[in-house]
Amino acid sequence: MELKGRLIEDSYCSENLKYGMNSTYTLYIPEFAEGKENLALIVDHDGDNKAAREAMELSFIKGTMPASVFIGINSGNVKATLEGGFDRGMRCDNYDIFGNRYPDFLCDEILPHVIEKYNLKISASPDMHMIMGGSSGGISAFNAAWFRTDYFRRVYMSSPSFLSMNNGLEITALIRKCETKPIRVWSEFSENEPDDYFGSSFTVADAAHRALKFANYDCNLRYYPDEGHCSRYKHVYTLMEVFEFIWKDYETPITPNANSPRFDKVFTKGEAWQKIDSFEFSSKKEIFIKGNGFTYTVCGNKIYKVKDGEKSEAYTFKNNIDAIALSKDGWKLYIAGKNLPCVYTLSILDNGELKGELIHSHIHRHTDFLFAGASDIAIDNHDRLFAATEIGIQAIRAWGLSDAIAPLPENLIPKNIEVLTEENKSFIVVGTEKGIYKRKIEVYGELPENFPYPHDYYD
Q: Does residue 297 have a pLDDT over 70?
C-alpha cells in the first residue's frame, strides 16, 4: 500500500530528564489526520515501523480505530563529552529497567516537544494513547503504561522481555499483587524464543500473560508455533488484528474488569482511596509489652528496653529503624525501616531480651528506588501487616507472604500508616505529603484470648 501522508525524520536532545541523550524519531501524519483535532496517538519503540503505519491507515479506513498519528522513537544514545570517549547506546538503560524514568521522559519531555513542534492536535485522553514495542521494547511499552497510566492505556507487546536484564522479572510478580490498572494489552510470542543467561523469553512472555489474566486485565494473547522472536511485529495484517482489539470501543474509557481474587481478599472489593481532612498517627517507636512489663523504644538503629526506671540496650540493627509493631499474640516484634530491605522479627523474652532475628517478608521495590524498605508499618486484628513503601501499601500475611499491593493516588509515597476500626469496619489510614487517605480493608474480627494461631501457609 502506498502511504501518502507526511513522513518526518527528526531528532531530539534531552536537556532535562535524560540529559545529553539524543533520540531520533519518525513522525507520520496520514492525509486523513491533517487538520483534525483530538487525534489518537501511537508510540512505537525502536523507531520507524512501516508495517504499523500501513496497518494504522488500513484500520482507520476499515473503521476499527480512530484517526491517529504515529511517532516511532529510537532508544537513544549519549554522546561522549570528553575527547577519546565513546558514545553510549541507551536501549538497556531505557527499555529494560523497571521504573518511571523513561516513561516520564516520554510523557513529560519528548512527546510534548514533538506535539508542540509539529502542532499536532493530539487528544489529551490517556484512552486515546497507545504504546507498542518488541522484545525489550515490549517490556518498556508495558512499563510506560504501568507507571504513566495517566498517559497510556493501550499496549501492544511482541515477545516482551520480562527478564533479569534490569529487574524486569519484578513486573510479573507485581501484576498479580497490585490493584489492576485501566490498561488493555495485546501480547504475543513464538515457539523459538531466545534462551539466554538473563532468562528465557518464551517462559517470561507466557508468565506475563498469565499474570495479566490472573489480575483480570483486558488482554489478548497470540502464540505462533515454528516462528521466532518478534516474528509478527512488522506484519501488516497481524497488526490490523492487534489494532482492532486494542482500539475496540475506543470512545468508551478503559476500566479494569476486576482485581485479582487475592487483592479483593485484602482490600475491600469496590472500595477506593478516599481523601480525609485529618488524622493523628501514633508513634511507632515505642511499645509497651504486657507479657513481660517492658517498654521498648527505638533510637537510630538501636532498640532499648525500659522497666522500673532502668534503661538498657536490647538490640542493635544493621540500619536505622523507622517503626516497630507487636504481633497480636504479644511475643513477636516486627521491625521496619526505610533502609531495611525486609521486614524483620525478633522474639521477646520474659527477661526483656530480644533474640532470634528473622526475615519476616521481602519488600517489593522499583529498580531505581528512593528507599528500599518501609517508612511505617501497622498490624490488623488478624496479624496481617501493612507496610508503607515507595510503591504503595504492601499487605503481608502472618506467614510473611506479601500478597496484595495498593498504590496510592498519583503514585504518592506513603509516610505513615494506621489500622483503624470504625462501626465494625476496618480501614487503613495513610499519610502522604499531599494529604491523608483512607481505604477499607477486609479483616477478621478481634480474636478471643488464647485462640490457636489462626493461620496456615495457604490461608
A: yes
Across 129-161, b (16+ Cβ under 10 Å) vs e yields bbbbbbbbbbbbbbbbbbbbbebbbbbbbbbbb
SS3 category, 58: helix
H or E stretch covering 59: helix 50-62
Q: Which residue blocks in 136-246 are alpha helix, DSSP H?
A: 136-147, 169-177, 201-214, 236-246
CA-to-CA separations, 93 to 166, 324, 436, in angstroms, rounded? 8, 37, 35
Quick one: cell of 166? 534490569
Q: Can you say whether residue 186 is alpha, beta or left, with left for phi > 0 and alpha for psi between -120 and 50 degrees?
A: beta
> Tell me, what DSSP letter sits at residue 104?
H
Whole-model pTM?
0.93
Q: Count the neighbouring beta carbons within 10 Å of the beta carbon of residue 11.
A: 10
pLDDT value for 368? 87
Other C-beta atoms within 10 Å of 172: how many?
Answer: 21
- Contact criterion met (CB below 8 Å) for 157 and 146: no
User: 309, 308, 305: which is closest to 295 by C-alpha?
Assistant: 305
Q: For residue 37, give the C-alpha cell.
A: 483535532
- Model pLDDT for residues 9-44, shown as the tens digit of each residue: 999 999 999 999 999 999 999 999 999 999 999 999
Q: Which three cell numbers, joined as nine digits, stand for 220?
A: 489478548
3-state helix, strand, coil in the chain (%, to 5): 20, 35, 45
